[in-house]
Amino acid sequence: MVAQHLQERIESGEYPIGRQLPSEHEMTREFGVGRSSIREAIRKLENNGLIRVQQGLGTFVLSNKPAQSPLSQLLQSGDEADIREVRELLEIKIAERAALHRTQEHVRALTASWQRHNSAAEAGEPIPWIEADIDFHTAIAEASGNKVLANLYRVFALQDLRKSIEKSHSKTHSLQKLRTLHAQLLESIINREPGKAVEVTWKLNRLIA
């Protein structure tokens, strides 16, 4: 919904080429959604070739016409099981690389996402829990140190990941297992244990499959 509204503003000329989009904080207030939803919308528009994200500067309109065959659109017609399989393969490689290449800045971002994730779980708040979980996995992708891999993960993962997390959240018996495994994954990345990170990621995917 957010991506559609922003795209309409870009195509209509309300946001002309070169224009900087409102900040993430401003858009969360305007649309009444969480930060992860805004980020998903931004990534979708970026994958469609409409905008460009410049780290430290902001997000700018690049074109008023979407790319002819963006990867995200191609994936929408893909088989759900095939998309999930690719996501799982990406997550395993990303976890391995994150344990090898993470920085202290990455550790801080991962820890903050984990703390929000844990607090929401303890409070029994499903929507903040799901958003914090998506932020956590996205932070792991950033910590991989491979921008292409991280961007591929975003394109392949987010539509399927949200569905999987929502399904697993509805299974109360698996919630504690999810929290335990996420804690183990964070620990393995902090301690630079790629083998353990791969093992825990595999277990997580089996639990939410």
Strand content: under 5%
Radius of gyration: 17 Å
Q: What general form does the structure show? A: globular
**Cα separation of the termini:** 26 Å
Give the oligomer, counting copies of the same chain as homo and different chains as hetero.
single chain
Helical coverage, percent range: over 70%
Strands ordered across the widest β-sheet: 1-2
SSE arrangement, N to C: HHHEEHHHHHHH
Mean pLDDT: 83
The tally of helices reads 10
Structural class assignment = mainly alpha
Unreliable sequence segments: none
Largest sheet: 2 strands, antiparallel
Say how many strands there are: 2
Describe this structure in words.
- With 209 residues, the protein is mainly alpha-helical.
- 74% of the residues lie in helices and 4% in strands.
- It contains ten helices and two strands, in the order H-H-H-E-E-H-H-H-H-H-H-H.
- It has helices spanning 2-12, 24-31, 35-47, 71-76, 80-101, 104-123, 126-143, 147-169, 172-190, 194-208; strands at 51-54, 58-61.
- The chain has a two-stranded antiparallel ribbon with strand order 1-2.
- Helix 7 packs antiparallel against helix 8 and helix 9 (172-190) runs antiparallel to helix 10 (194-208).
Descriptive labels:
2 strands, two-stranded antiparallel sheet, 209 residues, mainly alpha, 74% helix, single chain
Q: Mind sketching the topology for me?
A:
Layout lengths: L1 H11 L11 H8 L3 H13 L3 E4 L3 E4 L9 H6 L3 H22 L2 H20 L2 H18 L3 H23 L2 H19 L3 H15 L1
Antiparallel strand pairs: 1-2
Helix pairs in contact: 1-3, 2-3, 5-7, 5-8, 5-9, 5-10, 6-7, 6-9, 7-8, 9-10
